[in-house]
Design brief:
single chain, alpha+beta, 5-stranded antiparallel β-sheet, 19 helices, globular
Amino acid sequence: MKQILYLLLVLTVASCTNNENSKEVDAQTLRNRNLALAYIDSGMMKEAGEKLAILQKTIPGEAFVYANQGLVALRQNNLEEASVFLQKANDLAPNNPEVALLRGEVAMLTGQFEQSTQLLEDAIKANPENVQLRWARNDSKEHLQVIVDTLPQNIVARLALIKEQLKDEQFDVARTNLLALQEQRVIQDEQAVRLFNGALTQIDTEKARVARAQVIGLDNVLKPTRAWQHSQLEIAGSPGTIGHPIRNFLNTAVPEWNQPTAKQVGFTKDDDSVLQTRATRILAVESSSQSELFTASDQDTTRVLLIDWNNDRKLDLAESTKDGRVFITGGNELLSGNGTPAYLLTPWDADQDGDLDLLVWRGENTLLLQNNGDGTATTQTLDSPPLVIASIIDIDEDGAVDIIGISNEAELVLLKNYRSGVIEMIESPLPHVQVLSLAVGDFTNDGWMDIAFLDRNHIAYIGKNTHKNTFYPIHVGGNGKSVIAADIDNDTKLDVIVTGDRVQIFQADGVTSEIPASGSVQVIDADLDGDLDIITNGTEFAIWHQDGTPSENEFQKIILEAILEGGQRNNALAVGGFVEVRSGGAYQKHLITGPLTHIGLGGKPADAIRVVWPNGVPQEVIEPKANQIFTEVQILKGSCPFLATSNEDGSWEFVTDLLWRSPLGLKINAQTVPPIAATQDWVKIRGDQLQARDGIYEIAITAQLWETHFIDEVKMIAIDHPIGTEVFVDERFVAPVPPSFRLYVYDNVQTPKSAHDHTGQDVFEIISQRDGNRLGGFAKGLYQGIATDHYVEIDLGQIDATAGVDIIAQGWIRPTDTSINVASSQGSSPTPKALCVSVPDGKGGWKVVLPNGGFPAGKLKTIILEVPAGSFVENDYRVRISTNLEIYWDNILFTTSRAFVDHIDMPIKLLSADLGYMGYPTMSRRDAYSPNIPDYNDINHGTPWRDLEGYYTRYGAVEELLLGVDDRYVIMNAGDAMYLRFDVLDPPLPGLERDYIFFSDGWVKDGDWNTVDSRTVGPLPFHTMSGYPYPDDERPSELLSTHSDWQEFHTRYITPTSFRDALK
């Protein structure tokens, strides 16, 4: 097959001549190149392959095409196909370093270790200066020494060299290199100093093995530092990906792109728009075809602000007054007056709970009016000086939206959002500079939010983000009272607009212009023609339309629509999220501040747009439409690890999810983190779901959501039981005391005689069999996971309930998350209710027999609800199961027998466990009442989540960590899979059939903004911890960096960098 494919590729390019290869390509070919790369970067390998196939026909002699086809095949685990494509790429571009790295990776993965080494060595001979190639051979001291000589500041290469030198007991050179690290001043942390000194001592006493262990520990401690991560990027490229794409043509000339001539913008006053009153007005553009003029309702108004306060996707007008009041025009008063003027500052979802709060300055206080979700607000005084101006900003690109503001003493103030409701003022990001006005935007197109500001002399500057919570000032010029950021000429770069007694426009390309108008200024596309206009509101209100009409590909308008009913995971207009756009070679990023985001494209169509919603969930579109509307897709950020079994053909099939009982840092309201009552989980695997393959049972635990998993133990038992009987385990979550493990083996499982829902609808056909047809039909509430009250009522018929009745209910729950819990605990929102089981009381009413039935612990779960003996009266055997949670039932059965059924249970030996990379299976659901299920035959390889930062378990064998509950565990990241192989058992005895119970022990931690310590993998959990988080002195020795596990297993350090830079 490999030879046939290669022959076809040779024939494809046989007619190509060197002359044809050198021709310049057309614009469509360049666009297809950009789109292919955009699909690769987004993990959409199928679509990338389609674009590359087009390029193969257009430019068949181009190595770029075959190299990236090889990368696509590699990421799809089609290694033979990858090898063929990469061989063709090498024929066209012999010993190209990037192609050689991909060829070496494929050879390594196919077990051809000597060939991998030879490929890399040949490429190194042809490209001796290439440090990436030499790093791929980092087991060679010769290559490591060359890297260190070339890049003496690279601490990753130097540490690797020291380890190799100690392996060979070369103490003198190892000592010299260790001291070089000290001279670079990277040994700062107390732990790093201790490990450094320990290594030095062991080198001096010539104890190579112990010294090397100390250096490994030092390497681990330094991994979180900026110096280490920069060094890693310098020699290995972006972490967390399988192979790196080739980004430029290797054989084909590309026409040089000339920057368009700078556009001189001009504006004409629209006389028909002029209003002579001095009332405060704001023009809102709510869509690409709709605008509305808002006017302040109160003569004592100090400021007005547009905000969607009630999350209905419609803008409201908030007003502040001279007597200190804040209210929504035509709605509620949010802050009562106290005689001191109040000034609105900015909308900000400070608690990141899915609705917008309001920042207000009144007197000596900066106040946060926290939105309760029911039209009211709770007032909180922030630990901040009075802010006279404020804007939202994510200064450090960590996803949590901060505030940058100006104090009443003209100092720049940063209110840092540390997640989970913690907001702190930190040192001024622009010390010793007085600031009079500011605007936020990415002026440098590097994906980091900068500011424009006026200094005390009213002169405009750009404050470039230094990536260290500070800004570096760059002079712009002008003189005025306020500053605005906008791409006024649609060239992909933000311009600076200074307002005062005139409007001065400083374009990024150096062109300047003026408008003879004064007053407050709005920059907005007032006539919806695709370029930005200027609105002045001083002695008169007037719209100044920009001259001319933009041509195609000059602009893009993006509208975001969050889910309203049963959602509320984001504020309705997505304020505080961001939009990234890549068009041709240009990249830009915009913070979302209103219903419509205007983006200049500079004459090139947008190749890719990524929206990151305020709750951190990304959504990406390649080849977007003009005026793209992004409607939020209801994607779960967290739902615990998934369990899959292997089919006969080696593919994987989803069974259920695990570890719902032990979430770390999950809040049930803004303050409360409940204790974890149990870490062990158990689920049933039906006999038809697990078939031996080559004498082995194969199971996978997969991680694909915004979570970190800590797996301490896995084990499995087989249950052989009489044919005709059924085996179940109780797969419920119940707080505060979860059910203990118990095996239920029944010999008389029955179907109810009838079933109705809370509306009286006959639902018997839906719940009478497990067929994927699920019972919904209830109204959703404001928040995901919390519905209106609903129940299902089943009639068991005439039965003997002397021993009680067990209800066997199969279904799933759409969960809340920490931020939803925080939001729903505010105001007058309904409290989530666990399952409640009731029976008739004989008086025409109902009595509760099981008040806290918990809920199904995830997807496709079976729960057992035990109705006690003596519960039923007057032979009325009806049962109601009620809740207000989003629980969807598939099948509800019952049994009246609790007698012991003879069965055989047998432990199954774990043969091996290997941790590796899988990627992200596509999630889909059958209908609105069904859960999202992973399709393991359709796997993406992008970077969908902002990974929790910290140490994860390295890939490879990990069974040693899974053999007991001992706080030595596997730490899994999103995209990982743990492949388990269990010994096969002999077939069941005649008259018996077999099911399986899979046990796991561990914890799950998600990246939700309100989950405690959700930015990092740590604090690391353990079974006897007093709470989460816990005092540092509680941590057991197994979790200290000096333990051997942190030298042998937990050496993979991951940061959110790949997510942050995915589109750049």
